[in-house]
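Dear colleague,

Following up on yesterday's call, I've attached the two folding results inline so they're easy to grep. Please treat them as preliminary; we haven't cross-checked anything against experimental data yet. The first protein's sequence and structure tokens come first.
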Amino acid sequence: MLSLKLAANNIKKGFKSFAPFLMASITMFVMIFVTASIALSPSISKLKGGSSLSQVMGFALIVLSIFAVLILVYSYRFLQTQRSKEFGLYDILGFGKTRIVGVAFLELLLSYIITVIVGTICGIAFSKFLFLVFVNMIGGNYFNLVISPTAILLLAILFFVFFLVLMMIGVWIIWRSSSLDLLREESKGEKEPKSNLFFAIAAVILLGAGYYIALTVEDPMVAIMKFFIAVLLVIFGTYLFYISFTVWYLKLKKKRPSYYKPNNFITTSSMLYRMKANAVGLGNITILLSMTIVTVVVSLGVFLGTENSVKTYYTREAKTFSVANNTDTKQDIERIKSAAASKNIDIKNISDMYFAQDLQADRVKSSKDQFITANKQGAMFDKNSYFATLTTAQTLKSLGNKDIPSLKDNEVLLVDISKNKTSFDSKIKSIQWYGETYQVADTLKSVKDFPASGVTTISSKVMMIVFANNQAFDKGLANFNKTISGDQGFSNLASTSIIFDIKPVDEKRFTKAFKEEFKDNKDLSISYRSEALQDQRAQIGGFVFVGFVLGISFILGAALIIYYKQLSEGAQDKRSFKILQEVGLSKEEVQKTIKSQVRLIFFLPLVITIAHFAGAYLMIEKIVMLFDIKDRSVIFTISLATIAILALIYYLIYKATSRVYYKIVER
């Protein structure tokens, strides 16, 4: 009973020390509560794309849980350092380490109860607010988020485990330390770190290697695979940069004559003495800020590219699709018109297509005016690997492409349909397509209204081969299947599609008429651009929403680390500046020195973060362009806006937390 009363009084009277820890605990609880409550809510099933959102939120829950443990350990360790003198006094007075541990346990238990109660109340409100944001983002019409009791129970259990981990850390610190150690824990200084040229060079090499990978990657799919390698290199390089490179640089400054000027002497010495303690915190802040920028830029880029992406697949509002050779499309078009007329629905711009997409063809070495295919497929996205779309001249004419020349059976047209128009040289005169040689009648720069394939957005080498007629097309596809697909146990089939424009409001009625008209053909399906866009927005919206939640969490995490760093630095630097004033340094000189040091320490992570993002920009741009953002200026604008907003938030954090530092030091 005495221990419980003492624990409660400690929290009440020492609230100034407990407040940062409780703030960190409640903040992390609320952010995880948001992800868990939305992921487990029955309301999700009533939204399009709800299942995918639930899965992505589950991933975010794991990420945030790991992140929360790190923040809680960081903040609790700071709290223990602040209260070590108090625990040492208890031990000297005969309280005993067992009862001290008991008091620490009860303090944590009370903190846990406060965190769960306050965090649940705030979490419910914040979850409902963010759910409204998500529903508006995807264009949904269900706005009531039902909070599942399972989510509250899950969070309560999860944080109970987290606090048990903190308890074990606290017990270990108290038990291994003597009374004298506990009394001196808060006031003991740190040894000046030793410079290590090897690790300083390693930092430069790791950062350089990460930047090199990011700047030299060309293929978007390769960019995704190499992105994680580059990230790991940059993370390790960042920590080594702060731990070793900065120490080496500061010690190098000590050898310069300018070091003996009062301001430089105090700032450099203080920075060098404190850099070992600052290094990990600065590294954490830099990584969190970098993660925030990358998460927000990729999320917004993907969301804004959604409409573009859908339009490349649906060049007109409606599309029928079937897999069959030489289907009578003229008859199908008449039946589609009949189905529309039966419901008084207006359709227009009807076109038919006969094609096969995404056939991997490897090019062997030859003269520049020849394209010769290899008889075996190599690795996907290899430098000699191309993806071919086969179609007919009649298909292009049906889509409204004018000036399509008449072709003989042994002639083809080539079209470079890659985004960057770098698939092949326009000087190609002939193509040897799996045993059959065709003369290239012309090379077209683009074609109108032909739907993109999945490969178009991810490969830099995508071509279209246009045959003279259906018979020539069938022969070209058969030769491919005979040479390539036969070994794989399946054959690529030709696809037939009819596309046309229809008003979205008429789509439900037309679908009913279409199914009645084609009830004898179950292989023929119909889909619409508006529905695909809504589905895509729902799925991508979940991804963006999670990116938004993670971005907020990373910023809050960085702010908490900054706040703790200012508190700890202020407490330790207070003694140093007091000594400087006692030996004759004026108050104005002390303030000037404090400001220069704080600014240097504080804004260094922001500068390094911007450098990291600049190095990764080309790779991030290629990843975002997978989602069919064609205008690079959009990605650049999003990036600049994100950096500007983050810099503003960071500056506001600086202004708020630096006051804490100044008050402690100047007191």
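Below is the second protein, in the same order (sequence, then structure):
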Amino acid sequence: MSTEPETTEDTGPGTPESPESPEQDTAAGDSRGTTAAETAEGEITAGGTAGGEAAPGRSEAEAELAAQQVERERIERRKAERTAPIESGTKLSGKAADLLAAIRAVESGERPVATAFTEPAPAPRRPAPEPVRRPQPAPAAAAPAAPAAEAVETVRRVLREGGAPEALAPQVATALGEGADTALREDPWQLLRIGGVRPEQADGFARALLGEACGPDDGRRVRALTVWLLEQAALAGHTALELPALTAALAQRGVPDADAAVQDTIAEGEALVFQDALEEPGAPAPQEADGEEEERPVRVLVGLERYALAEESLADGLARLVNSPSEEAAERWEEAAAGASGGAAELARAVAGHGLVLHTGGEAARAEPAALLGAARAAGLRAFAVCHTAVGSRRLATLVGEGAEEAMGTVAGLLSGAEGPGRDADGALDLDLLIVLDAPQLDVEGAAMLVESLPDGARLVLSGDPAVLWSAGPGRVFADLLAARACPQIASRTPDPGPLGELVSGVGAGELNQVEAPGKEIVIVPVRDAGEAVHRTVQLVADSVPRALGVPAEQTVVITPGHGGAAGTRALNSALKERLNPGPGRFGGFDAGDRIAYSPAPGRTVPGRVVNADADGLHLECAGAPVVVPRERVEQCVRHGWALTAHQAVGGRWPAAVVVLPGDAAQTLSRPWVYTAFGRAERHLSVVHGVEQALPKAVAEVSAKPRTTRLLTLLRTQVPSAG
């Protein structure tokens, strides 16, 4: 049972833009034919609906961006209050020391950029704190307006002159703003700011416009390439790259002097440099010798400002919660703990005394945070819970009981203001307790906004299954917090029941066990090739599962490793539509009744169905809520959704799941992918198996790809027990 390129985990730290999974291929421009919808979706995982309508006059995306702007302003204010930067490293030598010395000189104004990197290396000096980050413009509070037709036409002429697709004109005009045509003509590599454009394409465009006036060492090219590589690394989950990995990637792209390229990009403020101490857990503290502190090994990292700001703000906010739990309402916290039992009581006692608590477990363990939510509300505490998807939120509501819907929502809905308790005069959420389920799906930006939204003294519970796929966006927040050991960790002892629970638990432990399934809970369907895999999948969804188990086709999800290939989501969706809802596709390729995957924002996918279409756009029903997608956004945001990737399906559960593992997916299988895909089934799992021994090998040997992050290092400087 193999899975193909869907492991949207990262590319390795040393190859920030190497083999993307089909999910990441879309974000980077899949050469196999990625559609605009898949590109906008970031190819990656799903979020949930906002669970409600946005404010009148605003689209969901606009409401979410406005909420993010408010949170970023609060983050900026908090960072401005800090008296000094965090010192996360000490001494450097060689090129790393030269690099940091030059950056500090430029940022302090002591030397102009032109000379700072050409003068001899500075004399050795005492360790200094990291360079102060220069403030950058905040993102717009609302989605940018569509560019004027005249601006699009002028950009189209430049694209035509350079041999680039004219269809990119609206995106270029929006990304570069006023004077986009002039900016693009003066710096053709700005084309790399458009999703799906690759360096070789931007190079060809630049040669067509500039002729002999450009070369591999052109400053405009090396800066654009450096930023592009960092963006590709973010798509793969990294919040920064180690300096040697970045310079090696630049050299592979034909940059003659990769070190100088990085220096130039940092000097222009387009990237930031960090030095982080490398500390082994349990290693003794550095000793002083002859009056000088022993030199400690450090790593030099380069990253984009937006992720650096989010990661540092997240560390600040977590430290605030850990170090200053409120003692107010102690009686009500004691009452909440007394009102819970079993594993929920242990969780409630931990929350009563600590500002941050981590909770781990499988699907059955969700009953424990659900019980905590009910007990806290019964004790008069202001408590709210959020899940990754609206489907997950509804499942949680059934565990909490009657009237629970008002106490839960989705992460996206809470951040956008469409759901939740509202905010106080300071802009903080009016809460005593926030419970976040599906915590492994939090990326650094979303996590930072959540934490910064909490008032002083509030409690935060992060609950999730550490064995599932990590977040679609950069970072590994939940895994880093578990490794930091900076707060109580409550591990649920409630196992997932039945044959499916036994199978999935074994996968999480690295074993693909033979499981007795007397009720046909698990069925293996061997296939020889991708064509047979598609045929058997359609047969299972349309005939076998409904007839044998009584699960209708609309309650069965198909999960496959990637979008491309002969058994990817595109091929499977085409075959499933032809069988389950044939039609001419008269609504831009869709018909009423089609199952769809809607992406309201990059990285979030919401399952739904097509209702109809009119002059306003495509009318959908997603998680029980009506959604209207304007005509011009349908191609970017909506795709057929009978078949999903595991990242799109994470956070959801269906009565039946058909996991398709074609032979060409063998090299991309991993334990987290298999665990996540198999775990989407509630009652029945069919595995269309074409990878032979690659499946047990992947489960036993292939763990999650590493991600380069700074959260653990940052927490060590602020939380004494971290590390």
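For the second protein, one point worth flagging: Confidence is low (pLDDT under 50) at residues 1-57, 82-93, 111-144.

Best wishes,
A.L.
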